[in-house]
Structures are given as C-alpha cells and as structure tokens.
Recover the amino acids of this structure.
C-alpha cells in the first residue's frame, strides 16, 4: 500500500450536487463555475490564485462572500502540498464531491525540436500528474459516498496528434487513456468517468498570450510556421465559440448516468471524432497536413544526390 494512500479519513456527510472545478479563475472553468452555480450546484472553484478570480466569480454569480454554495479553494497543480491541502479543504467543505472536473490546463506552441524538455515536464505535471494526485486524494471519499462523476476536459489535439503542439497533444492523449482506465476501476463503486473532447472556444489558451511559445520563426521549421500561423489563426477565429456553450455541455455531462462517456462538445470536435473514426490514419495525416499548409513529404530535404 503506498504511503500516501488514505482510507482512514473522517468524511462529513456529502452535500448533494457539489462539484469541484479546477482552473475556475478564467476561461472555460470560470464560465462552467458560473453556469453550475446558477443551476443550483454547490461549486468548489479551485484556482491557482483566489485573488481576483473568486471575487470575479462572486460578481458574475451574485453570490455573497459567505455563500456556502460558492467555495473558493487554492490549488496549484504543480505543487503537491497545495493539492493535498485543496483535497482536505474540499472534503471539509462538502464531504465527498459529486463532480470532479479536471479543467485546468496549459498549452504549448512549437515543434518537437523547438520545445524544451522542461516545458514537456511542466505540461505533464499540470495536466496529468497534478490531476491524478487530486483524484487519488478525493477517491476514498467518493467511493465511500458510492456516487460521483469525474470529468476530464480533453481536446481535439488529444484525439489526433497535431503538429506544432506535440506536448499538448501527448498530454491530452494520456489524459484520455487515464480516464478510460480509471472508468473500469471506479464504476463498480458507482462513480462514472466522462471525457469531454472540447472544440474551439474563445479563451486565452488559443491566443499567443495564453500559451507558452517555443516557435523558432527563422529556423528549419520557418516554412511550416509561416502557413500554419496564418491558417491556424483564421480557422480558430472562425471556429471559436463562447465559453458559455462549453459550460452548457459540461452541465449536461454531469447529469449522465453511464459508467463511461466520451463525447465532443462543439461541432468542430464532433466532426474530428467522426473523421478520425472513419478515415484511415494516413488519410487523416494528409488531410491535417494539407489543411495546415505543411509541405508534402520530402519537400524540405536539402538538395542531395543520394
Ligand atoms: N479554449 C479552447 O479552445 C479549448 C479547446 C480544447 C480544450 N481546452 C481545454 O480546456 C481547459 C480549459 O482551458 P481554457 O480554454 O479555459 O484556458 P485558459 O483560459 O488558459 O484557462 C486555463 C486555466 O487553467 C489554470 N491553470 C493553469 N496552470 C495551472 C496550475 N498549475 N494549477 C492550477 N490551475 C492552473 C489557469 O489558472 P490561472 O488563471 O492561475 O493561470 C486557468 O484557470 C484546458 O484543459 C484546455 O486544454 C480548451
């Protein structure tokens, strides 16, 4: 039994319809927290910094400072002490949460050769290792309650590895496999797992400011970046929907009863899931390459005689 495995917690009686949302300070997490609060959920808004996120959430929902249906919890997914303290605060506030929504995440822009290893490590710590640690800390209480749903927010990049964002694609793929594995483990205890494949939404993560950019615009991949940058921005602008649309999809997902659900939220995600199911991998490769304007196979070889 691992040293940090806890099955000895004193757990208060669970509050019905309580949900933990990580990354509730802004973007999809903020919109989801606002929506679920308005729908009557007790929302535990987990944020790296409670100031100013929680005040903004209170303003957006009209919740008073002492409203016990909107609870702020400090959570930095890269900090083990913060994760343990957050889990304890959550259990103290609501007992076993019904919903646990792993929404917080970071992205990265750059080719594999351009992206430093420490960014790969930060990507996996934030998007996988931290969420796994939080889940492990909360599962004993959720098992004891005999109900609940763990929601993992994936991305189109987790369905298909996308060029120039390999760490993000890799981590979202890993997130999906984690969720599938865990669903098989926790369903006998009455806990369901849902993977939401999010389409494109208008938040910081799809902007230069909201991502860690390792692109070398003058290096060997300059030709890729030139076209991808132009086409990517245009496509994102066209596809990006309001975060409130995602929040509606999440609210629906929390009402599911099935032990395991994997579903798209947004038309672009729905189309990609369908295409990925029916098209051979090589066709998907060429489609994505052509859409992004990436040169064809061998086009950037040096002029060699061999
Ligand atoms: N927007 C889209 O088009 C889209 C598409 C597919 C999937 N997604 C996924 O949706 C989720 C939410 O993204 P978003 O669009 O809302 O992006 P966002 O606006 O950039 O928000 C990211 C959230 O994650 C939090 N976060 C980052 N690092 C953290 C850490 N170490 N510990 C705790 N929280 C941390 C941020 O907190 P701070 O405010 O403290 O930085 C912020 O609340 C992500 O998992 C993303 O991959 C988004």
């Amino acid at each position: 039994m691992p040293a940090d495995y806890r099955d000895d917690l004193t757990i208060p009686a669970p509050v019905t319809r309580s949900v933990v949302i990580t990354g509730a300070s802004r973007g999809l997490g903020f919109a989801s927290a606002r929506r679920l609060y308005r729908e009557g959920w007790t929302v535990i808004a987990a944020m790296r910094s409670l100031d100013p996120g929680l005040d903004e959430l209170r303003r957006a929902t009209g919740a008073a400072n002492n409203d016990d249906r909107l609870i702020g919890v400090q959570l930095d997914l890269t900090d083990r002490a913060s994760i343990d303290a957050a889990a304890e605060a959550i259990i103290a506030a609501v007992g076993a949460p019904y919903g646990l929504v792993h929404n917080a995440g970071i992205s990265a822009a750059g080719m594999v050769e351009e992206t430093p290893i420490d960014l790969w490590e930060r990507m996996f710590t934030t998007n996988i290792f931290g969420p796994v640690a939080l889940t492990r800390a909360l599962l004993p209480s959720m098992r004891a309650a005999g109900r609940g749903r763990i929601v993992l927010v994936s991305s189109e990049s987790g369905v298909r590895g996308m060029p120039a964002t390999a760490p993000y694609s890799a981590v979202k793929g890993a997130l999906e496999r984690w969720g599938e594995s865990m669903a098989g483990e926790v369903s006998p205890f009455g806990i369901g797992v849902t993977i939401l494949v999010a389409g494109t939404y208008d938040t910081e993560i799809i902007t230069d400011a909201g991502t860690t950019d390792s692109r070398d615009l003058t290096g060997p991949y300059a030709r890729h970046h030139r076209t991808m940058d132009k086409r990517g921005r245009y496509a994102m602008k066209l596809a990006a929907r309001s975060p409130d649309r995602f929040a509606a999809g999440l609210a629906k997902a929390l009402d599911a009863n099935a032990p395991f659900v994997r579903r798209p939220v947004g038309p672009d995600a729905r189309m990609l899931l369908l295409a990925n199911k029916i098209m051979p991998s090589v066709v998907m490769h060429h489609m994505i390459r052509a859409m992004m304007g990436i040169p064809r196979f061998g086009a950037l070889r040096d002029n060699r005689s061999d």
